[in-house]
Design goal:
single chain; alpha/beta; N-(1-d-carboxylethyl)-l-norvaline Dehydrogenase, domain 2; 2 domains; 8-stranded mixed beta sheet; 6PGDH_NADP-bd
Amino acid sequence: MMPATTFIGFGEAGRAFATAGARAFDHKTLHERERGAMLAAYDAAGVDGMDDAASALSGAQVVLSLVTADQALAAALDCAPLLGAGALWLDMNSVAPGTKRRAAEAIKASGGRYVDVAVMAPVLPARKNVPLSVSGPHAQAAVEALTLLGFANTAVAGRAIGDASAIKMIRSVMVKGLEALSAECALAADRAGVTDAVIASLDASWKAQSWGERFDYNLDRMMAHGLRRAAEMEEVAVTLEDLGVDPVMTRGTIAHQRDLGALAITPPEGLGAKLHAITAAGQKAPA
């Protein structure tokens, strides 16, 4: 039987996950300029749009929190007193584990059941087939509820609140970082008139390997040659500046290369051993 469901926040993700007959509340309905568009979105999705959170949450058994990241904690704090006993609060927002733990405290104090849910890929076009990582003491109950709502790719990441969001946040270091690096590289290549040559060179040198192997290789190079590479990247930064491209990502690269090289560690075999050596050396380094 379909649980009584409420969406708090009804942007792109809410509309992608919409379940006909569910209730929804988005604060944009309170703003005259945005109200019409939001009411139309409710109608198009077949949900019952409410004018306040209390009405939307009345009798709700499952709540999908899909607000913007900066509003995730505020939404939990504001809605916690309005939840019925035992209601599942599925925090699907992209925020830090610590933020989710603070939100969980408020939900638990009001008698709700908080669940950390990480959306692990773009919601479109996958919609309810998007992979979801779920964690917390009520993770299994959340998986069962999400399955009833039609979600088809859900897995438990751990028993602790923060386990799922830690995977999402740390993965984003690479995913969003590569996007930013790509932009910096492509803009510089375009302004230097060497885009095709740069792409060809990258295609020729990019190895097909697992991310574990890639991490291991990259750390090996940085530990062994970080100081020299930092000096080379200083010249890369000058190149970009001369082209009118702010080397934001390149400056970070310089710092990481220099810091790892300065540890003067002979790279041990294996990713785990390298990470342990770096952590141990960093703990011994003077403040």
